C-alpha cells in the first residue's frame, strides 16, 4: 500500500543505493524548483518520497531546503525543541542551546553518524557539531552509537587499551606491521604482483603501487599475506595514496573479490570502496586547498 503524502520534512540515507530519501509537503512550485536543482531525482509512489542519488545527497538537499523552506523549518525546530524539553538526551557530550551542541573526542564513528543527521554541521571555530532541533529524532536514533564511540575515544580509555595491547602476545607482530605501514610497504605473492601505477584495493585501503625491489619478506608478519600459502615467496611492494583524479578514472569491479584475490593481498576495488576513497580524497584535497589559501 503506498505511503501517505508527507506532512513534514524528512531526509535520510537510502537503505541500498548511495543517496538520500527526501520528503516534504507538496507544493507545485517547490517541486518544480526541486527538480530543476536535482534533475537526477526520482519519485517513488510506494515511499511517497524522492530519491536523490549521490554520496553527498543528504547534505546538498538539506542546504537547499533550508534556503527554500525557512518558515516550515522554524516550525520544525520549535516542535523539536518542545520534544527535547519533554524527553531530553542526557549525556556529558551533549548541550542544549540555540542548537543541540555535540562535543566529543575525535572519533571516525562519531563523525560518520553525525554526517548522516540532516542539517548537522561542524562548527570549525567552536570545534563542536551543531544539530538543529528539527533533526532531534535523527540524532536520537544514532545517539547510542555516538556515545559508545565517544567513550572509547576518551584519552584515558585509549591509554588503557594501548597498555593492554602492549601486554598481549600479538603486540610484536602489530608493531612490525605498523612500521611497514609507515614505510609504505606491503607484502604480496612474488608471482602475483599488482599492476603498477593503477589504484588497487588492499588491506591498507586503495593504493597505487610504485614498484618493488624484490626483497623477500617473512609471510607471518606481513599484512595481507596470512591467508596465502606458506610455501609461496612474498616480496615487498612500495605504494602511495591515489589522487582524486586517479580514483575517478578507476573502474569498479563487477563483483565482490573472491577468497584467492583477498588471499593474495590485492584486488580490483568495488564501487562502495571507490566511493569511500573518493570521499576521503576529496576531503583531503579540500583541506589542502584551504591551508594553501590561508598561507597565501
Q: How is this structure best described in words?
A:
By secondary structure, the protein is an alpha+beta fold. The chain folds into three domains: 1-68; 86-167, no CATH class; 171-295, no CATH class. 42% of the residues lie in helices and 19% in strands. It is built from ten helices and 13 strands. It has helices spanning 28-37, 57-68, 70-86, 108-115, 136-152, 155-166, 171-182, 244-249, 259-264, 271-295, and strands spanning 10-13, 19-23, 42-44, 49-53, 94-96, 100-102, 121-123, 128-131, 185-189, 199-202, 205-211, 234-240, 266-267. The strands form three sheets. The protein has a five-stranded antiparallel beta sheet with strand order 9-12-11-10-13. A hairpin with a 4-residue loop joins strand 7 and strand 8. Helix 4 packs antiparallel against helix 5 (136-152). It is globular. Mean pLDDT is 83; it is low at 1-6 and 225-229.
Amino acid at each position: 500500500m503506498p505511503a501517505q503524502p508527507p506532512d513534514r520534512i524528512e531526509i535520510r540515507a537510502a537503505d541500498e543505493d548511495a543517496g538520500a530519501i527526501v520528503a516534504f509537503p507538496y507544493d507545485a512550485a517547490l517541486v518544480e524548483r526541486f527538480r530543476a536543482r536535482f534533475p537526477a531525482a526520482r519519485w517513488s509512489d510506494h515511499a511517497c518520497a524522492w530519491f536523490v542519488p549521490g554520496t553527498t545527497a543528504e547534505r546538498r538537499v538539506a542546504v537547499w531546503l533550508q534556503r527554500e523552506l525557512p518558515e516550515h523549518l522554524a516550525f520544525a525546530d520549535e516542535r523539536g525543541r518542545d520534544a527535547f524539553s519533554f524527553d531530553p538526551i542526557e549525556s556529558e557530550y551533549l548541550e542544549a542551546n540555540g542548537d543541540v551542541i555535540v562535543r566529543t573526542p575525535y572519533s571516525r564513528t562519531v563523525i560518520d553518524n553525525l554526517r548522516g543527521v540532516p542539517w548537522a554541521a561542524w562548527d570549525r571555530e567552536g570545534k563542536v557539531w551543531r544539530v538543529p532541533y528539527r533533526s532531534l529524532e535523527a540524532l536520537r536514533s544514532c545517539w547510542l552509537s555516538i556515545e559508545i564511540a565517544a567513550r572509547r575515544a576518551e584519552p584515558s580509555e585509549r591509554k588503557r587499551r594501548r597498555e593492554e595491547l602492549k601486554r598481549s602476545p600479538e603486540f610484536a607482530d602489530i608493531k612490525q606491521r605498523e612500521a611497514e605501514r609507515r614505510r609504505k610497504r606491503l607484502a604480496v605473492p612474488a608471482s602475483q604482483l599488482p599492476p603498477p601505477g593503477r589504484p588497487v584495493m588492499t588491506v591498507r585501503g586503495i593504493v597505487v603501487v610504485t614498484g618493488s625491489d624484490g626483497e623477500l619478506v617473512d609471510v607471518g608478519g606481513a599484512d595481507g599475506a596470512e591467508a596465502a600459502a606458506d610455501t609461496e615467496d612474498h616480496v615487498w611492494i612500495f605504494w602511495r595514496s591515489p589522487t582524486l583524479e586517479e580514483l575517478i578514472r578507476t573502474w569498479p569491479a563487477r563483483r565482490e573479490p573472491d577468497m584467492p584475490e583477498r588471499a593474495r593481498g590485492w584486488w580490483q576495488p568495488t564501487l562502495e570502496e571507490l566511493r569511500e576513497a573518493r570521499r576521503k580524497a576529496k576531503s583531503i584535497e579540500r583541506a589542502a586547498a584551504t591551508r594553501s589559501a590561508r598561507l597565501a
